[in-house]
What we know:
The complex is a heterotrimer.
Chain A: H1 2-15, H2 21-45, H3 57-78, H4 89-109, H5 111-123, H6 131-152
Chain B: H1 2-14, H2 17-35, H3 41-52, H4 57-82, H5 91-102, H6 106-140, H7 144-158, H8 166-179, E1 183-184, E2 191-192, H9 206-227, H10 244-266, H11 271-286, H12 298-314, H13 316-321, H14 328-339, H15 348-351, H16 353-384, H17 389-408, H18 412-429, H19 434-457, H20 464-467, H21 469-503
Antiparallel strand pairs in B: 1-2
Helix pairs in contact in B: 1-16, 2-4, 2-16, 3-4, 3-14, 4-5, 4-6, 4-12, 4-14, 4-16, 5-6, 5-12, 6-10, 6-12, 6-16, 7-11, 7-19, 7-21, 8-19, 9-17, 9-18, 9-19, 10-11, 10-12, 11-12
Chain C: H1 2-16, E1 30-34, H2 41-57, E2 61-65, H3 72-79, E3 87-92, H4 93-102, E4 114-123, E5 125-129, H5 138-146, E6 151-154, H6 160-172, E7 177-180, H7 184-192, E8 198-202, H8 207-212, E9 216-220, E10 246-253, H9 258-272, H10 275-283, E11 287-288, H11 293-317
Parallel strand pairs in C: 1-2, 1-3, 6-7, 6-8
Antiparallel strand pairs in C: 3-10, 4-10, 4-11, 5-8, 5-9
Helix pairs in contact in C: 4-11, 6-11
Amino acid sequence: MMKDVLIRLRREQGAARPPHAYFGALGGGALFILSLVFIVGGYELGPGTLRRLGTGAFPMITGVILAVLSLAVMAADLRDTSDAERPDWISFAAIGGALAVFALTVGRIGLVPGVFLTTITASLPDPSLPFVGKLALGALVGLGCWGLFIGLIGLPFAAFGGL
Amino acid sequence: MEILSGFGNGLLVAIEPVNLLYCFVGVFLGTFIGVLPGIGSMAAISMLLPLTFYLEPTSALVMIAGVYYGAEYGGSIASILMNIPGTPSSSITCIDGYPMAREGRAGTALFASAVASFGGGIVGMIVMAVLAPGLAQLALNFGPTEYFAVILLGLVAASAVSNGSPVKGITMVVAGLMLGTVGVDITTGAERFTMGIPEMRDGVHLVIVAMGLFGVGELIVSIRANATGAHQNEIDYAQFYPTRAEWKAMFAPTVRGASIGSFFGALPGTGQTVASAVAYAVEKKVSPAKARFGKGAIEGVAVPEAANNSATQTAFIPTLTLGVPGSASMALVIGALMMYGIVPGPRLLVDHSDLFWGLVASFLIGNLLLLVLNIPLIGLWVRLLKIPYRYMYPTIIVLICVGVYSINNNVFDIWLTLAFGWAGYLMRLFRFEPAPFLIGFVLGPMMEEQLRRAMLLSRGDATVFVTRPISGTLIAITCLILIYAISSTLKARRARQKAQVAGE
Amino acid sequence: MKHIITLSAAALLLATAAHAEPGKWTDEPVRIVVTFPPGGTSDLIARLLAQYFETEYGQKAVVDNRPGAGGTVAADYVSEQAPDGTTLILGNNAPFTIAPTQFDELPYDPIADFTHIAYLGASTPALFVQPSSGITTLDGYIEKAKGDGITYGSSGVGSITHILGKAVDIELGIEQIHVPYQGSAPAIQDFRAGVLEAYYDMVALNGDLITEGETQPIALAAPERSAKYPDIPTFRELGHDIVIENWTGLSGPAGMDPAMVETINDTVAEIMQMPAVIEQLDTFGVAHTPMESDAFTGFVEGAITTWEPLIKAANVNG
């Protein structure tokens, strides 16, 4: 059921391929906004004097250079008519989710169950692995991590339960 | 002559069975740890530190050094096979190593990496044996102005690492410099862009940036690529021995890379990541095969590996002779020596010459051991690629999580990795490359620190950068490179326009 | 409020408790949290303790490095753990005496949220100048500082060498130009490159440079002269009451069982008196002073108040 949905979703995603210019504006634009944040932030932190460059001097200098460069990048990308990359938001979400699951679980329920859940979350977007297989993989990786990181390398993590 | 007899004595020390054993333990463990993303030599060395209580100082140092360069080598394995740098400095190896693996030449790439690492290690060892006192003296002549100049040179070189548009390369370097300012300003103690989060005070750890941008970002891209079969390649498992032509193509780049690496290794703080980046950028400019760079050139694997391995050896020069650790791992080396009451410094070469020469000779033995250990393993590593990606990628994500978590045992680092991973994916969509960003990010804080310190010490006189001889020379070289780069770009553009006009 | 009550109750109990036998205090492995990355003096002391706990008393112990934000990440973590003796912190100035003044919002209270178990010892910083400068006395230094001005290196903003520099500014009525570094090694490198005129650093880590004549010690910030370097006068005997020491000690979360605290204290005291350990600590320049739990708590409290104006001065002027 879920497998079908995933396969269909992937096919639909693959259908439309706008030119790169569509993304070009986004990439350069995001960098431009970021540089403004650092310029304003740097100014508020204080640029200091030539002898004693202030806390904000370096963020401001790099911010200004980046602002100029990001506009140049934007201008060049907007003229780019080649096909854009196809974004894969499903994998994007699943991998992000896997990291989030690890962050939420490792200190609370321990490394082994945390890794188990992380593995399953990460494997969700792959329709070729049945859910039972995902469970088995999770268990295997969880136990493997226990042996490797706690047993062999001796990192100070709790295998089960909170720290 | 003194060097030869010193080295001879050192060799006798290094081949004592007990030192040989610990050298082996070190390189073996180092390779193994280096393959695991995020867990670098730091983790391995601190894990071995208690064991060193029971060892002779020389054995301990030989083992720690083995871990250190073993990890550097191991880091390249993950880079080549999965495009995930095992250590930050091997991110440069990804650029050509991974394309080679996708062409089905993973074995050759691993072999090239092993041989180039060996070559780099040997060059690094020779440099250390012959030039240690001289290089220590050179490092002593490096004040803030000189550091600033050398970093500027490194950055200009780094923007050439990018395969795409050069403007985007520079943009990423500058973005790296800018984001490197996040955290406490070390000159005033004021917080910058930390959003009030205590964990942000120390900035973002390099491993997090490398794992996020390269590791997680790449993983998101490759899930679909593998699911749709775009990545499947026939791999010839038996074929990993380079052809005669490849051997020839590798030789000069290895030597060049190793020389550049030795220089950067000897300067405390710049480290292997910068060494391999600069070496790669230089090679990309001078190599006859420059067109193939970024598309699976064997030279592109050999150069950064030779550079980072030789930098790893020469990093011991400032550590031992000046007591200035270039990296966290080197700080551990100083710590381990202090446990024995040996204070690294100018007297170490004289007072503990056995230790120094034993270490130098162990580089030879250790690098040989690495080669012997790893060439038979290449077939095994390549077989890893046979494991279906649906099993591999969740495992890799877990390895990245555990690796990042092991840096500070802090969950916050995982959230940051998530943010950088997503950013890394978006960067790929927008056709930005992570490698120049990483280099800007490494060098930014150092550049700012040295710039402000230089201005403070010169009491506001900006001319020091050109009037001091070493920094003046470096700045002049940087300017020449810039002028050359701009003029050649303009020439290329004019040629293109002419061709267009002619075409019409 | 609750903390204060438990704390005073604990103090009362302590006063009456008999001396415990040194030895193991829990069947669980103990985690010694260190506020620095591996490799520094603090980390090495923790590893030394962990090793002796295990080999001499069968108390399993591991070192857990949680560096970051001036040691506050580690201290915050420890303050939130169960007070069962399984989590200890090798504390020092940074999280306990500097951070409370340096940071506006500290997630923990250095006194109420901790059981300060055993003071280990301290190392002392000194003022060093270029031998080529011809300055050999503190008076000569003051003269130079008042004339051309002088640049000095410290191991970082808010570090104890920076605070010492500020203390010297205030006490001597001079204004040195502060150049912060990340740790003392790079500062010494710039000093030897000749671009830095002076620096403050732990005297024990400069032994070689002193004997080689590469650096000239001027004054020591200890209460008394050092046995190893008897030629260096103290600030105090030169008429300036500046004593700034880099102490280190073992603490745990608030509300630990007093009997257990006693056991740990006695175990640590016994280890610190073993000849091998004394010799080891000597290379780090750390001299051991035994101190009971309540005295140690009082010491931390006292240090916070005496240092407050210095830290404030250090932060304001950068």
